[in-house]
Amino acid sequence: MENRNTFWSNIPTVTKNLLIINLIFWLLDLVCSSRFNLPLKSILGLNYFMADSFRLWQPFTYMFMHSGFSHLFFNMFAVFMFATPLEQQWGSKRFLVYYLISGIGAGLVQEFVWWLMYGSAPVAALTIGASGAVFGILFAFGWLFPDTRLFIFPIPFPIRARIFVIIYAVVELFAGVANFSGDNVAHFAHLGGLLFGWLLILWWKHFDKSFGATPSNFNLKQWWSRIKQKFSNRHKENNPHEGYHYQEPVSGNTDTDDTGEDEAEKREMDRILDKIRKSGYDSLTQEEKEKLFRKK
Asked: What angle do the packed helices 92-118 and 187-207 form, to 10 degrees?
């Protein structure tokens, strides 16, 4: 059976399904609003809990609704870029829990802010989008991979992930409190996702022994290079002779046994180096480490 490594197959399971589900909800909203005049955003989006339109499922479903394609695209691009290494590091189950808790927590914080603003008045306030969960992902990425350098437009130089998260949080807090532009962005929901993500990580660090508390040395640039390398490997699989040069056997007395041993040792070394490239040096067994540094 042929095993094809594609760009899509390299995305972890939960991240991939989140991308698909969000796209389905966006398409469903388009169809319902244009063909059936059904306000799906009002039904599944998060309404103020004092309003008649509030439903118990909304703190969960609101994070799968988006106002337009650009809103969906930028949120899902952030999910693809930053959730992929998180899921690879934590595993699918833990990452899914983290994503949902961050998103639901963001909605609860937004409800609390509305309550401070409107009290018991049944105000028609609505928020939608995965941005709260995305902010939780950004915080986890900054915590787990703090020294990864990111290029953020329009800043002309790379900044460390932890610095980026701090700056972003301060900007959101200032924008939420001042709201000087009168925008329609749920800044406090963003901060709520970050807050609940931070609290969940603290909980896991102190009460879950299986949780790795040490940040990883993940490098975003290297991860992207590995993705591109897999594409190039697919091309080589279609033409296995490409990139290899063969030499005719040299006549004379040669020790075939030694040659066979050398070839076996070379293949073993290639396997160890490939394992380092995929999983890191720490994934090697003690025997493999000794083989790597063994000198003849």
From this structure: 130
